[in-house]
Amino acid sequence: MSINAEVCPVTVASRLSTLIEQLLGSPLPLRLRAWDGSEAGPTGGPVLVVRHRRALRRTLFRPGELGLARAWVAGDLDVEGDLYQALTALAGLVWDRPDAAPVTRSRMAAAVPELLALSGPLPLPVRPPGEENRRRRTGPAHSQRRDRSAISHHYDVGNEFYELVLGPSMVYSCAVWGPETDDLQDAQTAKLDLICRKLGLREGQRLLDVGCGWGSLVLHAAQRYGVRAVGVTLSTEQAEYARERVAKEDLTDRVEIRVQDYRRVTDGPFDAVASVGMAEHVGDARYQEYADRLFRLLRPGGRLLNHQIARRPMADESRYRVDPFIDAYVFPDGELAPVGRTVGLLERAGLEVRDMESLREHYALTLRHWVRRLEQEWERAVRLVGPARARIWRLYMAASALQFERGRIGVNQLLAVRTPDDGRAELPLRPRAWVELTS
């Protein structure tokens, strides 16, 4: 054996590192540990762990992000150490560096023999671990039946699990943080109150909450602003939980929770409509219908608060594709649109958009709090929903936090009004008057 071979023995980890460098055109910026315990790469940071050689086969069968996601969900890939640091390093190598050489078909083809040699002659199981968490689609996209199924896939996984992640507020959208706010519950209460003030809620008004979740907004609006509220959701588990909260607070005479598609709400008009974290489920093809419906549900002078995640516009919008991991395992059929397109569609419906507030950094902070809660209660989370789903939620929330921090996606509150014929929109002369109450 040569001196070089003794100093730098060829191990599974070193072979994998070399192969990754050939594929991506750059060294892997993380320490790598293979299934045989061998390690290669830089020290002092997080470690990418390939727990089983099946991970290579999954990548071969589904090249790109989906193959890696399937390996992660199955537990064949893992990260030891700071997950955010690991994802940042990988994003900088693969997605965020404009001069990074893409993994071409020819490069992948050249790597196949080595990948097969490393993965060995092990057939994949018929149903890989965790695949029960992958959404199976039937019927036309964004039909009412398919939307019910998609919502159930994400939300009907157990209210106890969501309590663990979200905390007592049970609000599944970004909180609003202030200079003296470091508590998740307080930040979520601040967000709910900001929405109510933007909507100008007053005693006796009617509020419709489209996609009401576990009922936090309608409860807040009824308790603190005296409104009569209707909350609609497609999730039976959310509705059951929200109704229990309403009954506990003795608000059944003022708050109604329905399992109902927003397209079937016919008992307008409402003085205000809130849509918080729901419009991402609507889909581009249905968004004009969504905007038209909300316009018709408002009385003249009524306000809409549309709180929605947005992506950056593309030079060629026809190239937009939904993130394959999110689509398969997290939010089936979810779509993001640039905020400019959303404004245009709302105004085409007849609404007048009067204010837009970006809460991008607020969502990053919120997600980091959710991830922290999940990690602190990891064993309990696994008992509640299984290891695969817990791994899905941890990865998607951590990756989403980084996406918000880097400005790749944002979240905006759009305040719109159904302006009456006389032009009196019933808004304050200074549209941001509500901000003074939170500064």
TrEMBL record:
Query: Which stretches of sequence are listed as region Disordered?
Result: 122-149
Query: What's one GO MF term for it?
Result: methyltransferase activity
Q: Keywords of this protein's UniProt record, alphabetized?
A: Lipid metabolism, Methyltransferase, S-adenosyl-L-methionine, Transferase
Note the CDD domains from the entry: AdoMet_MTases (cd02440)
Q: Which residues form the Polyketide synthase-like methyltransferase domain?
A: 161-420
Query: Which BP terms in the Gene Ontology apply to this protein?
Result: lipid biosynthetic process; methylation
One Pfam family matching this protein = CMAS
Q: Which family does it belong to?
A: Belongs to the CFA/CMAS family.
User: What is this protein's name?
Assistant: Cyclopropane-fatty-acyl-phospholipid synthase
